[in-house]
Each structure stands twice: as C-alpha cells, then as structure tokens.
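Ticket #4471: structure export looks truncated?
Reporter: QA, pipeline team
Priority: medium

Steps to reproduce: submit the single chain below to the structure queue and open the exported record.
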Amino acid sequence: MTETMEKMDANDLKYQSGFGNTFESEALEGALPAGQNNPQECPFGLYAEQLSGTAFTRPRSENTRSWLYRAHPSVQHSEMVPSALGGLGMSKTETKRAYEVDPNQMRWQPRPVPKISEKAITFLEGIEVVGKSGDPTQKHGLAIYNYVANASMVRQSMTNADGDLLIVPQMGAMRVQTEFGIMRVEPNEICVVQRGMRFRVAFEGEENRGYMLEIFSGHFRLPDLGPIGANGLANPWDFQTPVAHYDAEDDSNGSEEWTGYTKFGGRMFEMSQRFSPFNVVAYRGNYVPYKYDLRKFNCMNSVTYDHPDPSIYTVLTCPSSEPGTAVADFVIFPPRWMAMEHTFRPPWFHRNTMTEYMGMIWGEYDAKKGGFVPGGSSLHSCMSPHGPDAATFERFSDPAKVDTTSPAFFDGGLAFMFETTFMLELSDAARTSPHREFTYQQCWADMPASFDPKAKPPASRADNLLAWRASRASNGAKRQKRA
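Actual output as written to the record:
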C-alpha cells in the first residue's frame, strides 16, 4: 500500500553500505535477472529500465548507471504540462524570476514553520530559493534553497532533471521514498537524491525545516585525501543506500491517480499516473540515492599551531573543470578537539575567492555567539570580508580568558557550509525576506582599533612556537623553584 512507508518501523528500514559501489537488491527473491541486464523476458513479468547518470562513453571509473526492474515502465504517464506548483522551479504563472547579485554580508533568522491547522505545506510547497548561478539547461551551476513543511507528500512524486539534490534536515525527521527504496533522514544526517530519480518526502512530525543544495554540474564525490592518506574525513562505508522496496498497491484500473512533478530547465511540470511510481522490485547499479550520518565524520585538525583551512572538513565535493576548484563543496564544522597552541582558535578573518553559504543544524557557531542560530543561515560572497564577531575576537585573543596551552573540546554546535566557486544571484525572497538581519554588519562594528606602533609584545609571547613553548616551560620551572 502507498501508506506503507509511513507505517514502517524505522528499524525495519535496511541499507547497503558503501560509496560509489555497484549494488544489487531485490525486494522479491529472484526478481533480478541472472547474468544479464535486459533479458527477453524479465522475472515476474517486470520491465527492465536503465537509468543513466552519465553519458555512455564517460570513462569507466566515472560512469554511473543502474538497471531497474519495475512493474510499470516510467514512460506510462500523461502529457507533462506546466505546473501551478512553484518553489523548486518556476510555476506556470511565472515568466521569469528576479535575481540580483549583492556583495553584502547577509544573515537570516530561521523561517517559522506554519501550523498545519493554518495551512498544510508539503516539502515541495515549502521550498524557497536563496540563490543560484549558472544554467540548468547547460548543466552548469547550482542553486541553494531552504524549506519548511508540516505535511507529507501523498500520491505525489518529484523528479529533478536539472541536477542532484543534497538535503540537510535541521528540524524534524523525514522519510524519503525513492524508486530504489526508503531512507529515514533525521537532523545530523543528510541524503542525496541524484538527477532523474523519482522520490517523495513524508515527515514524522509537523515541524520540519532544513536546507538544500542543487548542483546542475556533474555529481557529488568524496574529496581526495592527499597527504592525509588512505583514511579520514567521510569514510565510504558509512554511506548508506536503501534496499529495494516497492508499493504493492496497483491503481492502474482504479480511480485515484498519482501526480508526478518534474523540474526541467528551471521550470516545474506535472503529469499523472494511474499507479505508484515506486514500483521497482529489484535493481542493480552504481547510480543510487544515499544518506550519511554527519556524526561519523572523522575530523582532522591541527595538533600544533594555527587554525587550518576549512577544506579539511569537506564531506562531499562536486569538482569543476578547474583542478582543485569546486562547483560545490559540502563542509561541516562538527564537535572536535581544539589543540592549537599560541593560536586564535575560532575561524579567522577572511576574504575568499569562493562563495560561502552557511547553516546551523544545532547549537552555536564558534565564531559567532548568539546571532547565528539553528535554522538560520548566512552568506559571505566572493571577496566579501567576514570573520568572528567582536565579542568572540575579544575573548579568544586574550590569553587571560582562553588558555591555549591545553586542548579543549568544542561540542557547542554543528554548522555546515555550501561553498562554491560561483557568485550567487540572489532571489527577491532572500534579499527582501522579513527574516533577513539588515543590521548584520553591526556584529563587527565594535571591533577595537588597538594598533599601537609603540607597543611591545608581551614577553611571554614569541614569534616562534617552539621558543614560546620553551619560554613557557622555563617560566614554569622558575615559578616552581620559587615556590
């Protein structure tokens, strides 16, 4: 039945582990053809359908595709027509969306979640565009969204022909039904539904909020580890792909229809089907949806001095044609040990060639106390200055208030960043939002002008870390001797 996903116990949802693996799964034993992909007659009268994530002639190491064995071929649907539904894509009443570039530092408070008694809002209805760059018709660029929702999608499916979707729930657990199976995704987890995969979202409660990144270019992959070695950051075996699951209900001769939405070239279309699109009984391949628990991230950090570049916190990346530069990086700032001596430990002041959009899943960000809250977000665009607020700088730059001779464990929050090489064109909704803090720049207004060319650095500080440590040890020995 179509209600099966909502009624299933979370412990009954099963997954296969690995990233980039070629998986096999069947919800009905014997549904996978033996020894070939498209036999003359498939087991149980199923249809064989290939879903290609890359061109046929892409190098084999980068080639992605899956074979789906389904009760109905996907092509069985009505004509696709422009949809009244907007949000993720333009509705039929929109001729053009207004976007503008803006170099200002921006911060937004969380969007409130409407009460379901006031208005039922599904995942698709609650999506709001923050900004975009590039053109999905050229398969180049990306878009950033947030969402609020209080109701599940019922007899609805979504297909995004424009790119991959990375979903970051901040409040409320979701169940994502895909053609490949079902994923339960809660705050502290993410999921990726790749281009062309049909899915629907059901929620376990009525208060749901989160963020979403769409890439028009390529697909997400694990970042190269370089000198880190063979292990670290997001381990491949911690990614989970659902096992095959299909809706047993068949309304092909019934009266109730499914509505299928498709985002294509930035516009929303819809069609109808007389059966559930989630009718895949078995599949094999390496083009699949997946989820990942951010709490399993194997974090790297400095154990001597200085705050490293945030690229060491990259979970997933989508490379551009320029080596070492990303269409998009998904980066997190998780609980971790801070052991850097003689160092300003929070993130430093920065002007970046990349664009940084940040969100807060829970807690506080270590560079800004108070203003950056769970469900909120900030944007620091290409070459726009940013950094710790005045209160954070004042505290962490004072040795009397923060002792950097001892390690400290930061467990105050979980933030993330969508970082891109592109400049974002911002939507009217984002630029004029009632939740935007138009006084955001004031958090740096009280930075003191403390430069004094006549001042001498305190004797206990040394330019050389080793000399500073030796000096500290010597001073400690002298104090111990006097005692």
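Status: closed, not a bug. The export was complete when the record was re-opened. Leaving a note from the reviewer for reference: Helices lie at 4-7, 390-396, 428-431, 465-482.
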